[in-house]
Structure formats: C-alpha cells, structure tokens
Amino acid sequence: MRTLIVGSGFVGGAIAAHLARQGGEPILASRRPVATATRWTALDVTDPVACAAVVRQLAPDAIVLVHGPSDVTWCDANPGAAMTGHRLAARNIAAVAGNRRTVLISTDNVFDGAAAGNDEATAAAPHNAYGRAKLAAERELAAVAAATVLRVSVVYGWEPPESGKWLNFFAACAYRLRAGEKVVAPDDQWTTPVLVDDVAAVTGAVLTARDLPLLHLGGPGRISRADWARLIAEGLGADPALVAAEPRARGRYAGRPANTCLTSTRLGRHPATAGLRIRDVRAGARLLAPRFTGSEARR
After folding, report:
1. I need a labelling partner for 102 at 20 to 30 A (CA). Which of 127, 137, 213, 231 fits?
2. What Pfam families does the database record attribute to this sequence (predicted)?
C-alpha cells in the first residue's frame, strides 16, 4: 500500500517508519524537507492546487493527515492561523481523496476537560483554539466516505537530544532530568499518555478498516503531569525531588483542559485493532529509559 502522510513531524515520522517496516510504501509530505530514510515530497497542504497535483502524481492508496500546528499555547495566540492550518488543509485533502482510505490524527483537546474520560459517544466541546481547529478539520473529513478520525491523547516517545526543542513531554522531562535540571509540571492536569509506537501501530491497523469513522486512542492509565514526571525520573534513575508540582493555571498548561483523557468503546472490539496492545506509562518508561540514558547503545 502506498500511503501519503501529510505532516513529517514526530508522529508522522513514526507512522511512516511503522508502515515501511510492515512492507508498505509511505511518502511523507510537508513544506520543508526532512532527514529521513522515507521518501519525501514537498507540499503546502493549505494550497488546493498543490494537494490535487500531489495526489494525482503519486496516486496513493491511502492518506494520513498529521498536519497543522499542535502547540496549544501558540494556537491560542494565533487562532486564525491555527484554524487555517487544520480546517483548510483537511478540506483540500477531502476534495481530492476520492474513495481512498483517509485517516485524520486528531486530539483529546476537542473536549472541554469537564469529564475524567471521554469515549467516542462524548459530545465534542473544545476548550481552546487548537481543539476548535482540530474539530473543524474532523468535520471537513466527514465528506470522505472512507475516512477515519483517530483522536489520540498526549503522544510521547524517544527524540534525539540534539534538537533541544523536544515535541513531547517525556523527552522534555527526560533530558532535563538527566541534566539535573528542575521540571515543573501541573498536578491538576490529567491525561492518558500513549506511546508514539502504539499510535503508529493503530494507524496502520485502521488503514485496513473502512467501517470505523471515529476511534479514540489513549493509554490505559490516567495520570497527572506531575506524577508522570516523577515516574519518568524514577525510570531514568534521576532524583524525583527535581520534579516540582504547580497548579495548571500558573504555567504553560493553562490553556489545556483539566482532563485530556480518552477512553474507547471500539478499540478492542473492532477486528482491525482487537489484537493490539497499548502500553501504559510504566511500560513505556521501561522501554524508553535505555535510549535516554544511553545504556541501549552500550549493550
């Protein structure tokens, strides 16, 4: 299967790597080139002419959308640009997708955080500009009969140290803790973290199912950011006293809902995803710790 992956960042790259390992032919598409073994093509997904040309030229069997700005604080400061980056892009892809399997990676931020958990039947009520933009993108994809909206909770995994601007909470905590730096995290913002490898595996499985319009993917454990940071410290052998808790309203998580938690009534029941194992944060920490400490390379 040839899959066009629109968005070549942390999640898009992991999906491409997974599909390649499964024998597929992933093609990453973004505005700027990326250093990757996966094939890449230039695409401004907000340009309808460019979208039509890329789909016509590459003739993908499936499309995965992992596009648009995902920094909640930036989106709140730039709501118009956030809306354009998500809704317009989804509209452009919907116009050229035809009958292709199309998966949109969406977010837990489409909910207001009032409930401890949100399943596929929970009505969306975005709390911030990012959530509103993602919900608008979801609605654009409703025009594609073979589309699936895959809402994911906070995604985490390994990132290399050299960037210095890590895209996921685990990596940011791990590198700071390893350097003996303080980590400040809210003790009143709850999430169901999901490993990026598991997101990639579920995405690959969903591409084979044409009868799954909406699916939620969160990790099996609900945890506060502060407790998660302490667990990361424990897994790395770092001093847990380096983690300081604070109210959500004081720091960079003020724009997040109190509960960015997802549950699913469909994940384990649909034939395409029934055999997949979603790891909890402890299993994820055990898996990732050797990479962040360098012990994996010494084995």
Report:
1. 127
2. RmlD_sub_bind
Superfamily designation of domain 2-298: NAD(P)-binding Rossmann-like Domain (3.40.50.720)
Nearest to 60 by CA among 93, 37, 90, 32: 93
For the chain, give every domain's residue range: 2-298
Q: Which residues pair with 150 in a beta bridge?
A: 105, 215
- Residues contacting 124, CB < 8 A, separation 6+: 110, 111, 131, 135, 138
Query: Would you say 157 and 167 are in contact if contact means Cβ atoms under 8 Å apart?
Result: no
Measured CA angle at 30 (ends 53, 46), to 5 deg: 60
Band of pLDDT at residue 161, cut at 50, 70 and 90:
confident
Q: How far is CA 296 from the centre of its chain?
A: 25
Question: DSSP string spanning the chain?
Answer: -EEEEE--SHHHHHHHHHHHHTT-EEEEEESS----SSEEEE--TT-HHHHHHHHHHH--SEEEE--S---HHHHHH-HHHHHIIIIIHHHHHHHHHTTSEEEEEEEGGGS-S-SS-B-TTSPP--SSHHHHHHHHHHHHHTT-TTEEEEEE--EE----GGGSS-SSHHHHHHHHHHTT--EEEESS-EE--EEHHHHHHHHHHHTT-SS-SEEEE--S--EEHHHHHHHHHHHHT--GGGEEEE-GGGSTTTTS-SEE-B--SSTTTSTTTTT-----HHHHHHHHHHHHHSHHHH-
Mean pLDDT over all residues of the chain?
93
pLDDT at 36: 75
Whether residue 203 has pLDDT greater than 70: yes
* pLDDT band, very low/low/confident/very high, at 177 (cuts 50, 70, 90): very high
The pLDDT of residue 90 is above 50: yes
pLDDT over 70 (residue 85) = yes
Q: Is the pLDDT of residue 226 over 80?
A: yes
